[in-house]
Amino acid sequence: MKGATLVALAATIGNFLQGWDNATIAGAMVYINKDMNLATSVQGLVVAMSLIGATVITTCSGPISDWLGRRPMLILASVMYFLSGLIMLWSPNVYVLCLARLLDGFGAGLAVTLVPVYISETAPPEIRGQLNTLPQFLGSGGMFLSYCMVFAMSLSDAPSWRAMLGVLSIPSLVYLCFTVFYLPESPRWLVSKGRMDEAKKVLQQLCGREDVNDEMALLVEGLDIGGEKTLEDLLVTLEEHETLETVDVDGQMRLLGTHENQSYLARPVTDQQQSSLGLRSRHGSLANQNGIHKDPIVGLFDSLHEKMPEAGGSTKSGIFPRFGSTFSSSVDVKHWEKDVESQFNKDHDDYATDDNAPDDESDNDLRSPLMSRQTTSMDKDVIPHPTGGSTLSMRRHSTLNGENSMGIGGGWHMGYRYDNGEYKRYYLKEDGAESRRGSIVSIPGGGHDGGSYVHASALVSRSVLGPKSVHGSAVAPPTGPLWSALLEPGVKRALVVGVGIQILQQFSGINGVLYYTPQILERAGVDILLSSFGLSSISASFLISGLTTLLMLPAIVVAMRLMDVSGRRALLLWTIPVLIVSLVALFISELVHFSKVVNAAVSTVCVVLYICFFVMGYGPIPNILCSEIFPTRVRGLCIAICAMVFWICDIIVTYSLPVLLSSIGLVGVFSIYAAVCVISWVFVYLKVPETKGMPLEVITDYFAFGAQASSAPSKDDTA
């Protein structure tokens, strides 16, 4: 996973620059005002231009990134940062300074919006949360280093605000070099444009191995939006001594995969088997939540994580070995290849080959992910496995040309079934809560063929790569205006989660607490301690702000460790109550006066706790969730909607804070923030699902299935 980690670190420099600029302008405004003698409204405009620029660019960044790609937009962000730094270094008047701040806002908006998307689309599921916490860490690190720089420059006789702001161009140039010469394009975006050969090379770079067939197939399947989906409980066993023509026997079905040599027999779990083996259907996860008004999608996702075997940061499969070749069926493969190729060459905006794509026709098409050049006919038989059918022993011996077995990430696997003229896609995961292993012979109604079995949950839908219809004609992949895709039930549910959590995060009080922190620390006597070292009040305030930012870094490191272990939802549910308690204690300390020392100590502890637990949960997780829950084709568009809401709320909170402080006071402001945090906890509990360790395509398919199943009329309603 080294390749994906280095790529994520390079991309996150954009967030470092945003944090750097936020701290620098806060310090530089003191000297800008002294130099230009600006009115209060103009001072606010200088600061606000960056927010305005970020809000404006966010409205179009998503659709443009879906059109041009993620990498060109990150290059544009680095150019905007670099130009704004040079212009601020030169700024002869406030008008030029405002222009520079606008360009800086463009860069910040692009980075904050697209870096999480880029990381999510390039990171393995097992460490996606950890890597997506890097923007929070580097952003806070940038703020800390910037405050250190501003503090050092404030010690000089004549600090230059132009130099403070112009330093931004140096790290921006480094970021520009990384985006141009190192960062690859998102493989998911490349697949969405039909540039398969390029996507495969990027995946090989990120994964550090040649065999990326599973990943390529998954990315192509991710082009699907909506469609009918079903959830099945299966007993899966290694196929042995079966002929190629045997596909369905007594309810059995063969599941085929992206590699040759192995396929599986699966059969639905009957009511008798479910009762005798103590297996629980995932359909109950949808129905049982209605009594407590939790979104059924939340219950469905929770059921997938119950006692789930931890991946341990490895992409190696611990559940199923490789599935068999896609060609191990009785389908006319050559005809199927033709159908896929003809499908790909159709003139569809979202799937047609990009004009700039290479002309190499050998790999750059939809056949490439699944169709091995080594297996192009029905002459090859399924090679029996030497272990005699034990699923456990297959784990140790399941290899292909010496390579270890791989799934699609996070312990998930993908299989295909040819059924009634089309291919169906199966996303499979061993049931970690009630898994049973044993002999098929011992299963009531299990047949007489013996062997090992695994109880697995499977989400089933029509495959994008299975175009052969009943009449033998190619079925075009889903197309249509991107805006119409926003009306799909799964996408709408995901937008409710994304927009809701962005709004609540901004109104949860972080801006007010950071605004109030210097006063708290001064009341605790930190300013007196610093003045004893001969520091001016301005220098002391910069140092206090730097120390406040420094508190965030260890907490973010803890969050990085827990993000893929405890999960996003769990972190939110146990960090938000700490925010509530901290805010309540803060306004109580303002109402009740014990002594100066006691009040200062209580306020300081509350502020430190609030900041640390905010950056562990509510700080990074909204952006992480928003980058995970939308389908590939509309991810940029949906992220732009969520990011626009974020920036609008940021502007509202920033400029309403002084008004609220003057009208209802600090106690009233903290009371509002505490109430919003209570609402946030309820919203997370009822609406936000757990997404740790799941491939992006699986997440979006489960959103679609959950929305489809929960909106369908129940049996009681139809009776």
UniProtKB/TrEMBL annotation:
It is a multi-pass membrane protein. Residues 341-395 are annotated as: Disordered. Its main location: membrane. Residues 7-692 form the Major facilitator superfamily (MFS) profile domain. This is Monosaccharide-sensing protein 1. The chain crosses the membrane at residues 43-61, 73-90, 102-119, 131-155, 161-183, 537-559, 571-588, 600-625, 637-657, 663-686. Residues 341-351 have a biased composition (Basic and acidic residues). It comes from the Eukaryota. Residues 352-363 have a biased composition (Acidic residues). PROSITE patterns: MFS, SUGAR_TRANSPORT_1, SUGAR_TRANSPORT_2. It is found in: Membrane. GO terms for molecular function: transmembrane transporter activity. GO terms for cellular component: membrane. The lineage of its organism: Eukaryota, Viridiplantae, Streptophyta, Embryophyta, Tracheophyta. It holds the Pfam family Sugar_tr. Keywords: Membrane, Transmembrane, Transmembrane helix, Transport. PANTHER family: PROTON MYO-INOSITOL COTRANSPORTER, SUGAR TRANSPORTER. It comes from Raphanus sativus. InterPro entries: MFS_dom, MFS_sugar_transport-like, MFS_trans_sf, Myo-inositol_Transporter, Sugar/inositol_transpt, Sugar_transporter_CS. Belongs to the major facilitator superfamily. Sugar transporter (TC 2.A.1.1) family. The gene is LOC108810011.
